[in-house]
Structure formats: structure tokens, C-alpha cells
């Protein structure tokens, strides 16, 4: 090494005197350092092999969901049904129900709220000899390569040093509104699970298809996870899209029942009044009867209008239900998709060569600065 550095110093001094660097001489210097460049390259390559062979096998499963268009056959059929039922004047067939844009679905799948619900779904693992939740898998059964444990070592040491320190807990009273959390809160295991699930799920939109890919260390677990994710996604999207329409339907239904009760009450008052004053000819009684009749007509008209709106809302709920059919079922993978041994080996070999060359140029710059400032 000293001989090489001495030869490099001569090259630098010659270049400084000539105020130029000859490419031929530079290449000769690189060749002279080829041994050390190879050592650096092989070191990086060896570290890469350690990463490859300490990483667990991963199996990838792919499935596809077909998303039906909301303005297709179903809307026309519902519009025809509205006309037949006498509700055509309410414009049911032309109303567009607000829906979740399909472009947002891949992002929604990776959201914490979605993954928090998903992590408690169960998948069968051969290692556990049972169906366990994804939360249990990530925190108890998931295996990692050597470098993952080395990266986590400082935090583990810090946790051990602070384990004797008693931290004062703070209780957060998270307000719930209509059965839903207004603020998301996660413990350590849940945060770790969400982070890991994001690396194991990939959802892409291709025209009207949702391509769902899942990755697990076991073939059966990968296929089951894919099926669970597809089913859970359909249910989750249905709940989001229908939430507004269902609430609207329930509200109108309550008002309709109230109007029906008032119709029955005014009808009973009118009937009782007529029975009590039958055969009596009085203008005052006639006026009272007309008033009761008008109240009944008003309440009945309101009830009839609400009943039509309830039917309209019922049809909108049906129309808003997302139709997602399985276009391609998840198939049990037969071979591991990761780690890609040949590809990664080639990548680490090339990376090692690049780092070796950078090592030479770093040494060149450092020696050049040293010689320059020494002669100043």
C-alpha cells in the first residue's frame, strides 16, 4: 500500500506541475491500485451475500378485482324501475351517486385506518401450526436478515438501559363519535405491524382492474393473505361508499314513520268528529270538519312525499353499492419470489466495483489536497 501511495504522490506532483491530468497516467494509477479496488469490491460483495443468505424466502401472490362502472347497466335498470314505480319524476335515473375515485384505492389500502382493521385478520402459518392475526405474525413470528437486527441493536440497547426508569403514563381520553374514532392511536406493536404490512402489500389500478399483490414467507400464508385483503377491501369500500346513503335513508325512514303516525292521528280525529256530530246541521261544525279534513290532507300529502323519497333513497343505496368481482383468484405460489439471488449478487458485485473506484478517487483527492497545502 505504501508503495502504491508513493507512486500516486509522484503522479499528483507531476500533474500539479503540469497543471493537467493525463488520462493515460490516471488509468495506469487505477490499474496500480487494482488489488485494493478488488479488496473493497469483494468486501462489499461479501456483505451483500450475507444479506442475501440471511434473508428469509418470500412468496408473492397476485389477484385481480374487476370494478363495475356505476353509470352502466345497473343505473339504467334502476332508472327504469323508478319509472315503473311512479318515481320517475324525481329524477332517480339521472342522479350520480358520489363514489370513491378508483385512483385513490391504492393509497387508501396503505392508510393507517385501513391497516389497523386489517391487522386483526387471521392467516394460517405452518410455523405457528395455527391461524394467527397479522399483528401476531409481525411481532412474534416474522424473521429478518442480519442487518435488520444490527440496525435495531442501538434502539434495543437504549431500551435496556432505560428499562429501569419508570415513565409516568399519560391516559388519553380519545373521544368517539358515532362509534368511530376521531383520533387514531397505536401502541408499539401496532405501529410496527402497520409499517411491515405496507412493505408486504402492493395495489395498482390498471383500467378497470385492481391488481393486488401480497408477500409472505410461506406460500399458503401469501395466498390466504391475498384473499383476506381482497375480501376486506371490498367490505371496507362498500362501508365507505354506502355510509352517506344509508344514513340519509335512515333519516328519511324516521321522518316517514313520524309522518305516518301523524296521518293516523289526524284521520282518527276526523273520524271521531264525524261520528260524534252525525246528523247535526251546523255551519260551525262544518267549518271544524273542513279544518280537520285539511289537516288530514296536508299530513297525508307530506307522508306520501316522504314515502316517495324513502323509495328513492332505497334505490340510491342499491345503486351506490360497489360491484367488485374477482377477475383473477389468488393462486398458491410454487416458488419464492425473493430474495433474487442472481440479480442481487450481480448488483452487489457492480456496487462493490463502483465503491472500489470511488475509494481510489477519494484517496486521490485526499493526497492531492495534502500535497498541495504542504507545498503552499
UniProtKB/TrEMBL annotation:
Annotated membrane topology:
Multi-pass membrane protein
Q: Which UniProt keywords apply?
A: Cell membrane, Membrane, Transmembrane, Transmembrane helix
Q: Which GO terms describe its cellular component?
A: plasma membrane
GO: which molecular function terms?
protein tyrosine kinase activity
Q: Which residues are in the Polysaccharide chain length determinant N-terminal domain?
A: 20-80
**InterPro entries attached to this UniProt entry:** Bact_polysacc_biosynth/exp, LPS_length_determ_N
Signal peptide location: none
Q: Which residues cross the membrane?
A: 36-54, 341-365
| Pfam families registered for this protein in UniProt | Wzz (PF02706)
Protein localization: Cell membrane
User: Which domain of life, per UniProt?
Assistant: Bacteria
Q: Do you know which PANTHER family this protein is assigned to?
A: FERRIC ENTEROBACTIN TRANSPORT PROTEIN FEPE (PTHR32309:SF13), TYROSINE-PROTEIN KINASE (PTHR32309)
Report the protein name in the record: Lipopolysaccharide biosynthesis protein
- In its UniProt entry, the species of origin is given as Cyclobacterium marinum (strain ATCC 25205 / DSM 745 / LMG 13164 / NCIMB 1802)
Ranked from the top, the taxonomy reads:
Bacteria, Pseudomonadati, Bacteroidota, Cytophagia, Cytophagales
